[in-house]
Amino acid sequence: MAMTLFWRVVAINTGLLLAATAALVLSPATVSATLTIAELAVLALGIVLVTAVNVVLLRRVFGPLERLASLMRRVEPGEPGRRITVERPVAEVADLARAFNDMLDRLERERLSSGRRALAAQERERRRLARELHDELGQVLTGVGLQLDGLARSVPAELEEPIAQARLATRQGIEDLREIARGLRPGALEEFGLRSALITLASGVEERSGLRVRHRLCPETSALPPEQSLAVYRIAQESLTNAVRHADAQNAELTLEPVDGHLALRIRDDGSGFDAAAVAGTGLDGMRERALLIRARLTIARAEPTGTEIRLDLPSPRNGATP
Question: Where are the domains of the chain?
């Protein structure tokens, strides 16, 4: 194991002391012509005392550097806000700590800015796809359905059954297409607000998958800014999707209520749960990114007795800080 800088300095100073003591012992400049045991003990005690003082003084200088290195190893992109604080540092160490904290400030600002731009571009692409699916592919399927309706009135009896099946498949395709478009662009969120959008989301999940979703939503959601409302909706949407696809849940609970002065979103299911590190494609990274961009705290934990609980604590409206 490599020696740290602190102990290197101590070793160098101790080596210098030993060299000076050896020179004193071997040179004529001694207390007596013949070195006595008492004089040797005094010299040894002096070396120990000077080394101890050296360690104490250097620890005050190098201690903040060690804490700074420890913090640098613990800094996580998903946990912003960590900063180093140094008590009574020397000037050089204080400058280094300030430079490190300034670097973290710049990195976090840049990540927030780039993340918001990326999510805004993603939402624009979702809206474009939803519009094209509805306006173009939706019209094509509607036209096919109308043609099949016309054929059904004039075909031979042996073709009635195949055409009926084709009509049914076309109608189902149109419904599926509309559902995909609604998922890409939640019109209820833009037109009626977050509470109505979450109720519509819960109802849609129940109809498509059979997952029973109980919801309890406070009316205070209307006070949320658009960026937070969109993040809450997308995290709820992804959580319910995961409950259906990965957890095989039968029941889920969706709540958005005040908790200790701030709003908290909670999605809890009774499924088998899942290992977030092992399951790919669950959208957890996107959920964490959205939470980070609105300065909220996202926690994912196993529910008791079974299932998963996802909780999003929104920033307090008083100071904008994550609780």
Answer: 5-111, 192-323
How far apart (Å, rounded) are the C-alpha atoms in residues 318 and 78?
A: 23
State the pTM of this model: 0.65
Question: Do 83 and 106 meet the contact criterion of CB atoms below 8 Å apart?
Answer: no
Sheet with strand 308-313: strands edge to edge = 212-217, 251-259, 262-269, 308-313, 297-302
Mean pLDDT of residues grouped by 10 in the chain (323 residues)? 65 74 62 65 75 74 73 70 70 78 85 79 79 76 79 73 81 78 75 88 88 89 83 91 86 92 91 62 78 88 85 75 52
- Which ranges of 133-260 does DSSP label H, i.e. alpha helix? 138-152, 157-184, 187-192, 194-209, 226-245
Q: Which residues contact 81 (CB under 8 A, 6 or more apart)?
A: 108
User: DSSP 3-state assignment of 217?
Assistant: strand
Q: What are 215's two structure tokens?
A: 């919801």
Q: How many CA atoms lie within 13 A of 145 on its CB side?
A: 14
Q: Which residues pair with 256 in a beta bridge?
A: 217, 265
> Interhelix angle for 194-209 vs 226-245, to 10°?
10
Helix (H, G, I), strand (E, B) or coil at 9: helix
Question: Looking at the domain covering 192-323, what would its CATH class be?
Answer: alpha beta
